[in-house]
Write a structure and sequence with these properties.
Length: 505
Amino acid sequence: MPDIKKNDLPTPAALPLDQLIAQRRKKLAALIDSGVNPYPYRFERTHTLQQLLKTPPNLDSEKESTAPVRTAGRLMTIRDMGKSCFAHIADGPTRLQIYVKKDVVGEKGYALFQNDLDLGDIVGLEGTMFRTKTNELTLRVAALTLLAKSLRPLPEKWHGLKDVETRYRQRELDLISNPAAQTLFIQRSQLIRSLRKTLDSQGFLEVETPLLQAQAGGAAARPFQTFHNALQASLYMRIAPELYLKRLLVGGIDRVFEIGRVFRNEGIDTKHNPEFTILEAYQAYADYNDMMTLCETLITEAAQSCNKSLSLLVHEKPLSLQPPFARAALTDLFIKYAGQDVIKAWREGRLRDVASNLQLSIEGNTPEHKVFDRIFDLKVKPHLWEPTFVTDYPLQISPLAKKHRSKPDVVERFELFMAGDEIANAYSELNDPVDQRARMEKQLALKKTGDEEVEVADESFLTALEQGMPPAGGLGIGVDRLAMLLLGQTSIREVILFPLLKPEI
C-alpha cells in the first residue's frame, strides 16, 4: 500500500489549526522567494473537468490519448508513491484523478507538487488523458502551475464538512467539501431557469421593482425598517413586489412577473428565513382559475427540469405532481377536519369559541386572523399531502382579492399546498379603487390596535388603481419552499446559499 502524505491524513491526526496555517504561510513565502507567483492572473483551459469526463479527447475506445489538454481544479487528495503520485482535483461537483510522475514533469515540477502544494491549493495542469487498469479516466500530468495557494486546510478531508452550523456560515467550505451541495444549488438554478422559461413562453415580461419602499405593502407581514440620510426619510425593505407589479398592469403591460428577494421581519425555522425568494406574476383579463392553470404548468415543468419526473419522494413518502391538482373549498375542508364551518363562525363572532372547543390554547390579545390561521394549521394543513388548491378564503384576511362572484364573505383566492406546506398564493385581483380604499382603511384600523402584520395603505397604488386596472389574476410562488420540495430538502437553509443566522458571539 502506498504511503500517504501528511497533508492527506484525516483531520484528527493533523496539527492544531494555527500551526497548519503557519506552515502554509511559510511555504507561501518560500515560493515567492524562489520566483514563483502563487496567485497568477489567468490560466487558459481547453477543457473543464466535466468536459474531460464526458468526452475525453480521442479516447473513445483507446486507453491512451495523444491530444494535449489544459485544465484546472482544487487539489482534494494525494497518494504519494515515491516517484509518482495519484491525486484528485475538483471543479465544482466534478472530480478527476490525475497522475503526476517525476520522469514526466521533471525534478522542479515534481518538487513543487510533492513539497510545496497542499490540499486545497488550486492548480493548472497540462497533459493527456488515459484510462488506468481499473478503467478510471485519469489525466497524465506533463506540466503544472500553482494558481492559488490555500492558507487554510480543508475541513474533514475524508468525509466532507458535517457540522450544520459551519456549513451554513461558511457555505464556501460546504461547496468545496460536499459535491452534493454544489449539485443542489445547480438544480435550484435550473428550477428558476425553468420558471423564467415557462413565463417567457407565455408572453410574460420580466421586470424589477424597488426593494426600498416608502410603504411596505402587498402582503400582511412585519417589515424591516431603515433610514435614508440624504432624503431624511424612513424606508422599508419590501415584503412583496405586488403593488408595483399591479401598477404596471395599469400602465398597459398585460403580463408581467418578477423573481426576487423579499424581506419579512419574522422568526427563523425550517420553513422561514427573513430574506427569501418569491415569484410573482400578473396577467390582465384573467382570474384565479387561470392562475391555477399557470401554477400547475410552472410547477410541473420545474419538476421535470430538476428531476425528470413528476413522482417525488418527500419524507420517504411518495408525492405525485401529475396534473390536474385537486381543488377544495376552504369551508368544506374545515367541516371535514375541524367539524364545523370556521369561516361562518368568524363572521358570527364565534371564532375564539371554536378554538376553545377544539382545545386550542389562544392568548386573549391574539388577533383573530392568527386564531383562524392556527385552527387551519393544526386541523387542516396536515391533511393536505397531495397537491391541492385550497380556494375561497375569508374576506377579512384577503384585502387585495376580489369578492367571490357567487359566495358571500369569501374572496376568489387560492393557496396551493403540497406535502403539508403552502407553496403558492393567488387572487382574482381587486381592481375596484373604491372597495380597495375601504379595505385598506379597515386594515389601518387593525394596525392601530397593535397588529403589525396587516396590509398597509399605499397611496401611490390607490391613486394608480383609480386610473383603471383591467381585471387580472395574480400568482405568488415561494421559490425556496418549492426548491425544498422538488430537491428533497427538509430545511429552507439547505436551499439558500447564505441563510440568516444568529451572530456568533
